[in-house]
Amino acid sequence: MAKITACINCGSRDVSWKGDSIAGTVYFGALGGQVQCGNCGHVGAPIEFKSEKDYGKFLDALKKRKKPDGRG
User: Fold this and answer.
1) How confident is the model at residue 2 (pLDDT cuts 50, 70, 90)?
2) Which of 2, 5, 19, 42 could form a disulfide with 9 if both were Cys (CB 3.0 to 4.6 A apart)?
3) 28-37 long-range CB contacts below 8 Å, 24 or more apart?
4) Burial class (CB in 10 A: 0-12, 13-18, 19+), 6
């Protein structure tokens, strides 16, 4: 089963490895590399999920974290 990689800030799956080493694209977590989110622009370590169910729980938690005025 493929892992789901997402932005830890907004939950978007639109993340790409940021760096200059091809090895980092495969092992970014182990090498301490970073990804950049195409949605919110966050640069940092991503979060990975083993299932759609776990990813959905994370998105629900992000929604609850948002303030009532819509700001995060």
Assistant:
1) confident
2) 42
3) 35/5, 35/7, 37/7, 37/9, 37/10, 37/12
4) buried
Structure tokens at 66: 């948002």
Q: Tell me the domain boundaries of the chain.
A: 4-65
Cβ count within 10 A of residue 22 = 8
Considering all CA atoms of the chain, what is the largest pairwise distance in Å, rounded to the nearest integer?
42
Contact 48, 27 (CB under 8 A): no
The Cα-based distances of 10 to 2, 20, 24 in angstroms read: 21, 25, 22
Nearest alpha carbon to residue 33 among 21, 42, 41: 21
Query: Locate tokens 């959905």: which residue?
Result: 56
